[in-house]
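Annex B. Sample input.
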Amino acid sequence: MDLPEEHLNVQNLKKKAMYLRANFNQSDAEEALSDAKKKELWVEFLALLDDLEALEGQKDKATKINAFEDAQHEFLKDKYLIFNEGEINFGDRITIFEGRKITKFYKSVGFRLGEIDLTLSAGEITGIVGENGNGKTTLLNIVAGELSIDGGTVFYPAFEKEQTALRNWYAVKQHIAFIPQHLDKWLGLLKDNLHLSAANHGIFGQENEEAVDFIIHRLGLTKYKNAKWNDISSGYKLRFELARALVWKPQLLILDEPLANLDINSKLLFMQDLRLLSNSLRYPIAIIMSSQQLHEIESVVDNIIFLKEGYPIYNGRVNEFGKDRETNVFELAGDFSRQDLYQWLKDYQAIKIEDTGQSFIIETPVGFTGNQLLAMLSEKQKIEYFRDISQSTRKLFQR
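Annex B, continued. Sample output.
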């Protein structure tokens, strides 16, 4: 479904792709597909590919690329008003939010958030991690324009021509979607709420119908389009909230602890959808989300902020965290004690061993690798869980 949505020269395949996805979604997810149903969907999928190949064959590669880039240029120039002598650098990220030295004080409880520098760009996902009560939700509310700041500056370059304290918040918020951790109950049918959300953002008539149909099938809500609040699980309630936000194509999506009530499969699918939607060519989104699910969030985000008592211990690219480390840190679990580990590692340069109650955190010199540790410990006892967290913000929880 994303292919015809992204590329203007294959728009005529959009309905066929939606039909195929709708048929797949209607299949009973609780049971394996029958051989007949698998064959039917496979035949339909191959037919779609044949149509795509035939359409693509109508133009040579250079013509198709030029046509697509021309359409992209016009789209971006109209949507973002960012252009220089008629040219747009497609390698540059469009800045959606810019915050400098953001601070917030709560004098009654002695809590201070910041100072925090934050840039959110279209096509990138930023994760905010840290223990509860460290300012994650406060920062999200500031970005969403729901909470004022006590120091620093905030600016929305994609929506505002110049920075000012007297901004038009109504106009700014027309581009921002905020999904809180605790979802409000909605009335009526799921699909009717999506139609209403689209209409509230100026999408009417046939365009409204097509936008709602697309997002319902794209996010796997086909079977639940006529469902009410009490008819669907918490996971599908969250998926509905995502659909309600995306149906009008916001440029900034804010999510507060979206993974908290999802099972492992739902988490993986949800994060995969966020990554794909953020990377959209025609409708790139800047996404910022808070979470304590470090393994899942670190696998998809571009930037990460770790908050400790309101202060950003780390604020940067996720793939650069821990590059200048002086030690390696490993997390593992098994049927053994801290004393066992000390005994087994007494000749292997273990610097520190910590028992978290559910696992052990072992710190070693940077030259002592995870493979070496696993090989040595596996001779002593079965390892039930192992993870190298040397370049994960997980190790910051131990400070």
